[in-house]
Inverse folding.
C-alpha cells in the first residue's frame, strides 16, 4: 500500500469520528439552546423546566466544553448551536472566576462573621464536624439536620467558644436546627412553614451584636424529592419566607441555611429580589456546596444548595465555601458581613 493510500485509510476513521462529534454536538446544542429560550417564558411550575433549571449550570458548562472542542476541530456547523448556552454559563458563572471580589469594610468597619452548615443527620460521632466549626471560628453559626445526639455533642464540645446556643433537635434529625452565637440571643423562635403536609424546622433569632441587634433566620427548605419529585412545596415555603422578610421591615436581617435550590431556579430569584447573596456578591467561583456520593464515596461537588442572604445595613465583603465538610455531604458557607446604619451617609472609601 502506498503512502497516499495509507494516509487516506487513516483519515477515514478520524473523519467518521469528527462527523459523529459534529452530529452529537449539534444535537446537544440545539436542545440546550431551545431549553434556554423556553426558560425565558416557562417557569418552574412546569416540572421538566424546574428539573432543567436545577441542573442548568452543568448543562451550560457542557455546552461550553463542546464549543471549545468544536472550534479546535473546526466543526463550524455545530458552533452556532452551542453559543447561547455557553454564553449563559460565562455570564452567570464564568465571570466569578475573574479575579477576587473580596473587599475590606468600607463604612463602619464593624463586621459579623457568619456560617451556615448542614452537618448531615447521621449516627456516628461528630468529632470532625465540631473541629471544623471550631476552626472557622465564626461569630454565629446556623446548623441544620440536628438530632438529639448532635445537640448533646454541640453543647458539650463547643460551649466554651459559643456560650449562647439555641438548640432545637428532633428525633427526625432532618428537621432539627441549632444556632451557635458568641453574642447573647435576645429572641428565639422555632417554627414550621405552613401550607405543606410536611416541613423541616426553622429558626428565627435576634442576636445582641454590639453595634445593632441583628435578626437571623436559620432555614432548611424542603428538597424536591420530599414525597416524590415535586417543586411546589419548596415554592410554597419560599412564598411564606418572602412574606416574613417583607413583614420584618428590619434594618439588619440575615437569612441563611440549606435552601435545597439552585440559583437558576425560580425560588432563588424570589429571595434574590429581596436580599443580597453573600457568596454571589463577595465570593469567587461557582460556590458548589453539596457533594454527590455513590455508595458512601464522595464523587464531586455538584450543586449549590446553601446560602447566606443579607438585607439593609449588612454588606457582604467576603465569602467562601470551605474546602472540607467535616463528614457531611454539605460544605459550610462562611461570610464576613459589614454592619452599618443604612439610613446614614458615609464618605466614599
Amino acid at each position: 500500500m502506498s503512502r497516499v493510500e495509507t494516509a487516506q485509510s487513516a483519515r477515514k476513521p478520524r473523519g467518521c469520528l469528527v462527523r459523529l462529534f459534529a452530529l452529537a454536538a449539534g444535537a446537544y446544542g440545539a436542545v440546550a439552546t431551545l431549553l434556554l429560550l423556553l426558560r425565558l417564558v416557562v417557569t418552574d411550575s412546569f416540572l421538566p423546566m424546574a428539573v432543567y433549571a436545577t441542573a442548568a449550570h452543568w448543562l451550560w458548562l457542557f455546552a461550553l466544553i463542546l464549543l471549545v472542542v468544536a472550534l479546535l476541530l473546526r466543526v463550524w456547523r455545530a458552533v452556532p448551536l452551542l453559543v447561547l448556552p455557553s454564553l449563559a454559563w460565562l455570564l452567570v458563572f464564568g465571570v466569578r472566576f475573574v479575579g477576587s471580589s473580596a473587599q475590606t469594610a468600607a463604612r463602619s468597619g464593624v463586621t459579623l462573621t457568619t456560617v451556615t452548615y448542614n452537618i448531615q443527620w447521621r449516627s456516628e460521632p461528630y468529632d470532625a464536624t465540631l473541629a471544623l466549626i471550631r476552626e472557622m471560628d465564626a461569630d454565629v453559626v446556623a446548623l441544620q439536620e440536628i438530632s438529639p445526639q448532635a445537640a448533646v455533642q454541640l453543647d458539650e464540645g463547643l460551649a466554651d467558644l459559643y456560650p449562647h446556643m439555641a438548640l432545637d433537635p428532633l428525633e427526625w434529625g432532618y428537621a432539627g436546627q441549632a444556632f451557635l452565637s458568641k453574642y447573647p440571643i435576645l429572641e428565639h423562635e422555632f417554627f414550621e412553614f405552613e401550607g405543606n403536609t410536611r416541613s423541616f424546622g426553622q429558626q428565627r433569632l435576634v442576636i445582641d451584636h454590639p453595634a445593632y441587634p441583628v435578626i437571623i433566620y436559620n432555614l432548611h427548605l424542603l428538597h424536591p424529592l420530599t414525597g416524590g419529585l415535586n417543586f411546589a412545596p419548596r415554592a410554597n415555603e419560599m412564598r411564606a419566607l418572602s412574606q416574613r422578610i417583607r413583614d420584618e421591615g428590619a434594618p439588619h436581617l440575615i437569612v441563611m441555611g440549606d435552601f435545597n435550590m439552585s440559583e437558576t431556579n425560580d425560588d432563588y430569584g424570589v429571595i434574590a429580589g429581596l436580599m443580597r447573596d453573600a457568596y454571589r456578591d463577595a465570593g469567587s467561583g461557582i460556590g458548589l456546596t453539596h457533594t454527590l456520593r455513590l455508595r458512601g464515596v464522595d464523587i464531586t461537588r455538584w450543586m449549590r444548595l446553601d446560602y447566606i442572604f443579607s438585607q439593609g445595613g449588612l454588606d457582604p465583603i467576603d465569602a467562601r465555601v470551605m474546602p472540607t465538610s467535616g463528614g457531611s455531604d454539605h460544605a459550610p458557607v462562611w461570610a464576613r458581613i459589614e454592619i452599618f446604619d443604612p439610613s446614614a451617609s458615609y464618605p466614599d472609601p
